[in-house]
Fold this sequence. Notes:
Layout: E1 4-7, E2 10-13, E3 18-24, E4 33-38, E5 45-50, E6 56-58, E7 66-71, E8 76-81, E9 90-96, E10 100-101, E11 105-110
Amino acid sequence: QVQLAESGGGLVQAGGSLTLSCVASEDISINNMGWSHQPPGKQREVVATITSRGNTAYADSVKGRFTISRDNAKNTVYLQMNNLKPEDTGVYSCTKGFTFWGQGTQVTVSS
Protein backbone atom coordinates (compact mmCIF):
# COMPACT_ATOMS: atom_id res chain seq x y z
CA GLN A 1 0.00 0.00 0.00
CA VAL A 2 1.32 3.42 -0.95
CA GLN A 3 2.53 5.76 1.78
CA LEU A 4 1.97 9.50 1.35
CA ALA A 5 4.01 11.86 3.51
CA GLU A 6 3.00 15.50 3.66
CA SER A 7 5.20 18.30 4.94
CA GLY A 8 5.48 22.07 4.86
CA GLY A 9 2.65 23.09 7.13
CA GLY A 10 3.00 25.60 9.92
CA LEU A 11 1.84 28.88 11.39
CA VAL A 12 1.64 31.88 9.08
CA GLN A 13 0.04 35.29 9.19
CA ALA A 14 -2.84 36.19 6.93
CA GLY A 15 -1.53 37.21 3.53
CA GLY A 16 1.46 34.93 3.83
CA SER A 17 2.50 31.90 1.80
CA LEU A 18 3.35 28.26 2.34
CA THR A 19 4.38 25.43 0.07
CA LEU A 20 3.24 21.93 0.97
CA SER A 21 4.92 18.78 -0.33
CA CYS A 22 3.63 15.24 -0.57
CA VAL A 23 6.09 12.44 -1.23
CA ALA A 24 4.72 9.07 -2.31
CA SER A 25 6.43 5.77 -1.61
CA GLU A 26 5.82 4.57 -5.16
CA ASP A 27 5.42 5.82 -8.70
CA ILE A 28 2.63 8.37 -9.20
CA SER A 29 3.14 9.19 -12.87
CA ILE A 30 -0.07 7.52 -14.07
CA ASN A 31 -2.22 8.70 -11.18
CA ASN A 32 -4.44 11.66 -10.62
CA MET A 33 -3.34 13.41 -7.44
CA GLY A 34 -4.95 15.98 -5.19
CA TRP A 35 -4.95 17.98 -2.00
CA SER A 36 -7.76 18.26 0.49
CA HIS A 37 -8.46 20.72 3.31
CA GLN A 38 -10.19 19.80 6.55
CA PRO A 39 -11.02 22.81 8.73
CA PRO A 40 -11.36 22.24 12.49
CA GLY A 41 -14.60 20.38 13.22
CA LYS A 42 -15.61 20.19 9.58
CA GLN A 43 -15.49 17.67 6.76
CA ARG A 44 -12.65 17.31 4.35
CA GLU A 45 -12.93 19.13 1.01
CA VAL A 46 -10.79 18.50 -2.05
CA VAL A 47 -9.33 21.88 -3.02
CA ALA A 48 -6.90 21.06 -5.82
CA THR A 49 -6.39 18.23 -8.28
CA ILE A 50 -3.89 17.43 -11.01
CA THR A 51 -4.27 14.71 -13.59
CA SER A 52 -1.54 12.44 -14.87
CA ARG A 53 -1.31 14.77 -17.86
CA GLY A 54 -0.91 17.83 -15.68
CA ASN A 55 -4.38 19.31 -16.01
CA THR A 56 -5.39 21.14 -12.85
CA ALA A 57 -8.63 22.10 -11.14
CA TYR A 58 -9.39 24.08 -8.00
CA ALA A 59 -12.19 24.69 -5.56
CA ASP A 60 -13.65 28.19 -5.80
CA SER A 61 -12.38 28.92 -2.29
CA VAL A 62 -8.73 28.68 -3.38
CA LYS A 63 -8.84 29.53 -7.07
CA GLY A 64 -6.29 32.18 -7.94
CA ARG A 65 -4.40 31.69 -4.67
CA PHE A 66 -3.30 28.04 -4.66
CA THR A 67 -1.30 26.18 -7.30
CA ILE A 68 -0.90 22.41 -7.49
CA SER A 69 2.03 20.87 -9.33
CA ARG A 70 3.80 17.57 -9.59
CA ASP A 71 7.28 16.16 -10.13
CA ASN A 72 6.88 12.56 -11.20
CA ALA A 73 10.62 11.93 -11.10
CA LYS A 74 10.48 12.64 -7.36
CA ASN A 75 7.07 11.03 -6.77
CA THR A 76 6.09 14.38 -5.29
CA VAL A 77 3.08 16.68 -5.47
CA TYR A 78 3.19 20.28 -4.29
CA LEU A 79 0.64 22.84 -3.18
CA GLN A 80 1.78 26.46 -3.36
CA MET A 81 -0.52 28.55 -1.17
CA ASN A 82 -0.46 32.32 -1.48
CA ASN A 83 -2.47 35.10 0.14
CA LEU A 84 -3.51 32.77 2.93
CA LYS A 85 -6.64 33.56 4.92
CA PRO A 86 -7.68 32.49 8.44
CA GLU A 87 -10.34 30.25 6.88
CA ASP A 88 -7.55 28.27 5.20
CA THR A 89 -6.62 26.91 8.63
CA GLY A 90 -6.85 23.14 8.92
CA VAL A 91 -5.23 19.87 7.99
CA TYR A 92 -4.08 19.46 4.41
CA SER A 93 -3.79 15.94 3.08
CA CYS A 94 -2.74 14.62 -0.29
CA THR A 95 -4.40 11.80 -2.16
CA LYS A 96 -3.30 9.34 -4.78
CA GLY A 97 -6.18 8.54 -7.03
CA PHE A 98 -8.67 9.60 -4.34
CA THR A 99 -8.18 6.12 -2.92
CA PHE A 100 -5.16 6.58 -0.68
CA TRP A 101 -4.74 9.52 1.67
CA GLY A 102 -1.86 10.80 3.74
CA GLN A 103 -2.03 11.74 7.42
CA GLY A 104 -1.86 15.42 6.60
CA THR A 105 0.02 18.51 7.70
CA GLN A 106 -1.41 21.29 9.84
CA VAL A 107 -1.71 24.81 8.48
CA THR A 108 -2.68 27.63 10.83
CA VAL A 109 -3.30 31.13 9.51
CA SER A 110 -3.51 33.89 12.08
CA SER A 111 -5.44 37.09 11.48
